[in-house]
Amino acid sequence: MPAPLPGRRPAYPLLLLLAAVLTASCATTRPGVDTGATSHPATTDLAPTSPSASSALTPTAAPSSTSAPPPQAPPAEARRVFPVRASNASYHPTHSIYPATDIFADCGAPVVAVTDGSVLEVSRVDRFDPGGPRGPFNGGLSVAVLGDDGVRYYGSHLTEVAAGLDPGVRVAAGQQLGTVGRTGNANNVCHLHFGISPPCPGKDGWWIRRGVVWPAPYLDAWRRGVNRSPAVEVADWQRRHGCPKEP
Question: Tell me, what's the pLDDT at 25?
Answer without folding.
Answer: 45
